[in-house]
Write a structure and sequence with these properties.
Elements lengths: L1 H15 L5 E6 L6 E2 L4 E5 L6 E6 L3 E5 L5 E5 L15 E5 L1 H4 L3 E9 L7 E4 L4 E4 L7 E3 L1 H10 L3 E6 L5 E9 L5 H21 L3
Antiparallel strand pairs: 1-13, 2-5, 3-4, 4-7, 5-6, 7-12, 8-11, 8-13, 9-10, 9-12
Helix pairs in contact: 1-4
Length: about 200
Amino acid sequence: MKVWAIVCLILALCCAVPASATSYTWNFATTPNASLGSTTHIYTSLTGGITLTATGSSPLFYKSDGFGETGLGLICHERGCDHEIEPGQSIALNLSNLLSHSITGATLILSSLQSGETGSACDGFTCVSFTSGNNASAVNITSLLLDMQHHHVSNLVIKAGSGDVLLAGLQVSVATVPEPGGLFLMGSGLIGIAGMVRRKFRP
């Protein structure tokens, strides 16, 4: 019984404790300089198959001009417009399929942030701000997604402050759920050890 209990506990610890979190990545710029012809588009993570929906305040547009301005923007018809998210416009990401998971980390990439330009990612309660120093760089938004889970909010809204921005990428890590078999082995091992301790100290 003693050997069985120890073996079960060792196996359980190997099976039940995740080695690392699972990471999901979404790329929002795959077809350069093309209109999607719609205000909504469904994106699937590069691995894992988790979908999210992007909804623009006008039809969505992929932009890539070769000067670091690559990402998801909005189509426009005004003279001189550059198909980016302008002040007063937005792209909302519906993360409902993602927020049901146990999130351990998240980063967001906005591009085309020139000197003096700003952008933000908001959930209706709080925002994370982006400046030119964050251009095309991964910015930690873990607390923002946890806030969305706390308030049961599904939409993450990307907006421009001063200037204009593009939505480039999102990466989210979630905790791995222990396998039921590992939990069973752990339970068996703990019960066995409890039995050994009880017999050892029995008067």
